[in-house]
Amino acid sequence: MKKEQLQKSLCLLAVLLSSCALMIDPLENNFPPTERTVSPVVDTLYTDLRYVKEPIRKPVIAVYADAFKDETGQRRSNSTYATFSSAVTQAPHAYLIRALKQAGSEHNGFFEVVERVSLDAVTKERQLIRSTRETFDEDKKLIPLKFADMIMTGGVLSYQANTSSGGAGARYLGIGLSKQYRSDTLTVGLRTVSVSTGKVLMEVLVTKTILSASLDNDVFRFITEGTELVELEGGSVKNEPISIALQMAIETAVLETIREGVENGYWRMKE
What are phi and psi for residue 173, nearest 5 degrees? Predict the structure, then answer.
């Protein structure tokens, strides 16, 4: 009877510990003592980007897929088996185009972005329009494509895995609790190049930290001395998405580019 009660007590204790592990957010407990760079900051940064004042003349920007890409060649880390998946998305230009389009979106936009990623598709469609109009003898001419004032180039320059790691744990009377963390570092470079002169007008480097943390707990107890051992384990892991860190780094780079452009007189804001 006592044996069954002890087993039930241990099971209940393990369930309670597991519940605590799931309720506790490893990234909300100031452990490790590093600055958080993801989650609530995303909304604040996105809001700052959207509320940038409108310039007197919108700069026309072009982004080429092969001019803003992942330069790291880093593979996703895995301690148990080899993986050939890239650690960073292979389409960082999509995040850059979105950030440029969102800049000043609450004030009629800051940049005017022209399509260059799918330029071949646009050109083919324009050729189709021309041939159709020629077939039906239409005199209406096609408006020429708009050219860019500046080109945004750069990419993901560095991805350092496990730049710092650590942990802590404790055990008492067969009940244990441990916590571990690790951080990775992502660096994005953004250059603004003048199309007319080829001069690099501005260059911005932004580094963001990606934080991962795990919380584990376990219980073990001998039911009958020297004969039976009951051991229960539970835990939770939370990883900050690399895509969110990349998005934040690119949006920060765009904001910094706007600030430097105003300081250097490349564009002026409306009053």
Answer: 55, 40
In the chain, alpha helices (H): 2-23, 40-50, 92-102, 119-135, 242-263
Query: In this structure, what token pair is assigned to residue 71?
Result: 């330069």
Are the CB atoms for 51 and 106 separated by under 8 Å?
yes
Paired tokens of 152: 């945004």
**Tokens encoding 23:** 């309720």
19 backbone dihedrals φ, ψ, rounded to 5° = -65, -40
Domain interval for residue 69: 2-119+147-263
Give the tens place of pLDDT for each residue, 154-208: 999 988 876 666 666 776 666 777 777 778 889 999 999 999 999 999 999 999 8
Poorest-pLDDT segment among 11-20, 96-105, 151-160: 11-20
List the CATH number of the domain containing 47: 3.40.50.10610
Residue 83 located in a structural domain: yes
| Residues 242/209, Cβ–Cβ less than 8 Å | no
Instruction: Tell me the per-residue pLDDT of 208-248, one tens digit each, with 9 for 90 and over.
Output: 887 777 777 766 555 655 556 566 666 666 666 788 889 99
Q: What's 55's DSSP letter?
A: B
For residues 170 and 189, is the Cβ–Cβ distance under 8 A? no
127 located within any domain: no
Has this prediction a pTM greater than 0.90? no
Q: Which amino acid is at 46?
A: Y
3-state secondary structure of 74: coil
